[in-house]
TrEMBL record:
The lineage of its organism: Bacteria, Pseudomonadati, Pseudomonadota, Betaproteobacteria, Neisseriales. This is Adenylate kinase. Pathway: Purine metabolism; AMP biosynthesis via salvage pathway; AMP from ADP: step 1/1. Keywords: ATP-binding, Cytoplasm, Kinase, Nucleotide biosynthesis, Nucleotide-binding, Transferase. It comes from Paralysiella testudinis. One of its GO terms (biological process) is AMP salvage.
Amino acid sequence: MKVLLLGAPGAGKGTQAQFITAAFGIPQISTGDMLRAAVKAGTPLGVEAKQIMDAGGLVRDDIIIGLVKERIAQPDCAQGFLFDGFPRTLAQAEAMVAAGVDLDAVVEIDVPDAAIIERMSGRRVHLASGRTYHIAHNPPKVDGKDDVTGEDLVQRDDDKEETVKKRLEVYHEQTEVLVGFYRNLTGAAAPQYIKIDGTQAVEQVKADVLAALGK
Ligand code: AP5
Ligand code: ZN
C-alpha cells in the first residue's frame, strides 16, 4: 500500500500519519522529519536546510528526490509506505512517476488557511519521533511531555506566525497544483483520490481517512 498525505502546513498530515501507518503496518516517510533530523545532527544538509525551513521556503527538488529515493529503497518499504509532505512540487511528483512509484491512494486533508495559524501556535512536537500534539485540541497526557517516552515536547522553529504565512503562500503557489496532477493521472499510475474535511476533530478525521482507505 503506497499512500500520499497531501495538505497545507498544519492540515494534520503528521497527526493522521500515525493512524494510517499503524493501520497498514507501513513506514511513514516525512521529508520534514528527515530534514529536522539532519538539522539536529548538524550535517551539511541540515545546516543548509535550516535556513530555508526557518524562512518558510522549500529545499531544492534534487536534494529531496535523492533523499526519498534512498529511503524507499530500504527493505522496510518493500510492502509500501506513507508519504507525508512529499511530493510537494510538480517536479517531485513527476520524478516519482518517472521512477515507477505508483501510488495506490492520495488523501487530501482540506483545511482553510484561517484555521491553520491557530493550530500552529498551539502545536508541540516530540522531535525524535515526530509525534505531534496541540495544547488544546490534542494535548499530551502530561503537560509538555511525550506520551510514549516522557521526554520534553518543543515548539518548531518554523511555527512563528510570519513563517507560517509564508509556508501557506508557498503551498498555494507550488504544492496545490498536485491536486490536479493526481486527479488527472490515468492508467496504472492513477491513484484513488480521497478528499477529507480536515476541520473536524482529530478522531473524526481519522475515522473518515481509514474508512476511505477501506479499514
Ligand atoms: P513539513 O514538516 O512537511 O511541514 P508542513 O507540510 O508545513 O506540515 P506540518 O508538519 O507543519 O503540518 P502537518 O500537516 O503535519 O500538521 P500536524 O499534524 O503537525 O515541512 C517543513 C519544512 O521542511 C518545509 O517548510 C520545507 O522547508 C521543508 N520540506 C519538507 N518537505 C519538503 C519537500 N518535499 N520539498 C521541499 N522542502 C521540504 O498538525 C498541526 C497542529 O494541528 C498540531 O498541533 C496538531 O495537534 C493540530 N491538529 C491536527 N489535526 C487537528 C484537528 N483535526 N483539529 C484540531 N487540531 C488538529
Ligand atoms: Zn507534519
